[in-house]
Amino acid sequence: MALFAAARRAAVSAAPLLLRASASSGANRGAALLRPLAAVAARPQPRAMPFSSAPATRPSSDAELLSVIESEIKYAEDCDDHDRVEEIPENFPFKITDEKGTNAVTLKRSYHGEQIEIVAHMPSLVTGDEPDHDRDDEEKGEEGDSDDDAGEKPLQSSVPLTVTITKGDGPVLEFTCTAYPDEVLIDSLSVSQPSGDDEADLIAYEGPDFNDLDENLQRAFHKYLELRGISPLTTNFLHEYMINKDSREYLLWLRKMKDYFKQ
């Protein structure tokens, strides 16, 4: 009986210790489970970006560029070339097709069963402001070179031309030329029969360099073009027309740039 009482007292006295130990263990496990959640809650969260339909502020560099473009437009509009209407010469044999926003003009005509087409590209302009360092060096050098320089023609603006002449479904004769105000220089010529095979057409032999031809043959080809309307009358008109077109297209290009940067 005394032994049982002693055992009971030992069990009773040990119970609070066990309960405390159990509670402590449970608390530790709960704290361990809650610790990651607390860390996530304490972690700084990314700030939400408010949505706005208002346009972004234009960068200052864009505003500055727009101002410069507007100044250039004003300068171009003050020039007389952009709105000049060219008077077509009498007996001009070609019909002109000129579309805004393009860098070329097309001229067409028929001549004794031939279809002649000229594509005039944007001119290579000579303004007189180009540096002439080579000439300055020569003037400082030997005096004997001055006689050779005196015989050279001054630089002139020119218009690249591509002249195509066809006869029905037959071969195509094509000239590439450089038109100056009063003359036309033939740079190259070729004759081909369209085969529909782009690869075969690409590797076709196009003939020798024009300047390597016999002088009589060169003169004969110049005469051939002149009879078909590629004459000083045509080239003088084209020279002025293409310079004015260059001014018109430049102004149109500036206005497109302005519209873009205003958006």
From TrEMBL:
Positions of region (Disordered): 122-158
Pfam families named among the record's database cross-references: MAM33 (PF02330)
Which InterPro entries does its entry note? MAM33, MAM33_sf
Q: Give residue spans, biased composition: Acidic residues.
A: 129-150
Output the superkingdom of the source species.
Eukaryota
Task: State the protein's name.
Answer: Mitochondrial glycoprotein
Q: Which organism is it from?
A: Urochloa decumbens
